[in-house]
Design a protein that fits this description.
- This protein is of the alpha/beta class.
- The protein folds into two domains: 31 residues; 259 residues, Rossmann fold (3-Layer(aba) Sandwich).
- 47% of the residues lie in helices and 10% in strands.
- The strands form two sheets. The protein has a five-stranded parallel β-sheet with strand order 4-3-5-6-7, sandwiched between helices. Strands 1-2 form a two-stranded antiparallel sheet.
- A hairpin with a 3-residue loop joins β1 and β2.
């Protein structure tokens, strides 16, 4: 009996078809996995914003700048206005359970006045570099008497996430890869870039693997073990000094708080990198000593770590406790104003 074999070109075509079908099915499976994984995340839409990279859109619970506040830009006469800025911890989930809400309530009760208002200008993912620009481009136009920064974790995280990327920005935004417009547009002009749109989930896995590899960069880890305070501390406090100088020139009181953090949680920086993170955060904390405008909240929830439900985000009771600690630190200022 004569055995007929498929021509080589048919075998190649058949194998290619099976390969692409497998890839498409894997992309679909990854899409389902990520949709389930992201299902509990709070979705808010953003738009491109010059220099800041992004701001939240205006909505039912947000103002024209995407801030979670019901206060208008125009400040009422006789009002002492405070603006709280920071990342997602400052922004909070529900406006009525945010740090800014509890801080306004605490100050109002302590000083028996209705002339204090606290605006929530937290933007999830923001680092000090963005907040400095936010103060200059947006917040100063709200005519605040005081601006409070609640920072630390995002800056520590971006320090690791972007360690392999070339940038002249001290502490770039978390998704710095997404903001490299020139490089990305060069890629989009190449023919094979057309396939990238259809494999977004594969690209997400690829980025995760790249960052995992970066976080285990032994040479980088050794360098920063030998000099744990180094770049992060220097850049962090230089930026806060710059914000302080700008605010003082505008007649605004600036206060910087280093936020609580729970190192026992499953942080993105694991193993040796996690140990360095703890040391870096401790060094940043101790570096605030000579700065009268800087305070640490690192110990505020140490007696009850359950108030932090992941690495840094707080339950409402934790937000209330942080607001109370802020009010304690600000007491010398407010006793002079409202005595």
């Amino acid at each position: 009996m004569e055995v007929k074999y498929k021509p080589l070109w048919k075998k190649i075509l058949h194998g290619a078809a099976i390969f692409f079908l497998a890839v498409l099915l894997a992309e679909l499976a990854l899409g389902i996995y990520f949709s389930v994984k992201d299902g509990n995340e709070m979705v808010e839409t953003v738009h491109d914003e010059p220099y800041l990279y992004y701001l939240y859109d205006e909505g039912e619970t947000t103002n024209q700048h995407g801030f979670k506040t019901s206060y208008p830009i125009e400040k009422p006469i006789g009002t002492y206005r405070i603006i709280l800025m920071g990342g997602s911890v400052a922004r909070g989930k529900e406006a009525e359970q945010s740090i800014s809400h509890f801080l306004e309530k605490e100050l109002t009760q302590r000083y028996n006045t209705d002339k204090i208002e606290v605006l929530n200008a937290g933007v999830s993912g923001y680092v000090l570099q963005q907040e400095f620009i936010l103060v200059q481009s947006v917040l100063q136009h709200y005519k605040p008497d005081m601006i409070i920064g609640l920072d630390g974790y995002n800056d520590l995280l971006t320090y690791y996430l972007n360690q392999s990327l070339e940038t002249n920005i001290a502490l770039p935004p978390h998704q710095w890869r997404d903001f490299r417009v020139i490089k990305d547009n060069r890629f989009r002009k190449k023919p094979y870039s057309r396939f990238a749109y259809f494999f977004k989930n594969f690209n997400r896995v690829k980025e995760s693997l790249i960052r995992t590899k970066d976080l285990n960069n032994e040479e980088w880890l050794k360098t920063h073990t030998d000099n744990p305070c180094g770049t992060l501390c220097t850049n962090y406090w230089q930026l806060t000094d710059d914000i302080q100088d700008f605010c003082r020139a505008k007649g605004i009181w600036y206060v910087q708080f280093l936020q609580p953090i729970k190192f026992e949680a499953e942080m993105p920086m694991q193993g040796q990198a996690k140990e360095i993170s703890e040391q870096l955060y401790a060094d940043v904390d101790s570096s605030s000593g000579p700065r009268p405008y800087a305070f640490s909240l690192l110990e505020v929830v140490n007696d009850d770590k359950s108030l932090i439900y992941d690495d840094c985000h707080l339950l409402p009771k934790g937000n209330e406790r942080v607001a109370r600690a802020m009010a304690d630190s600000l007491a010398p200022v407010f006793y002079q104003i409202f005595r």
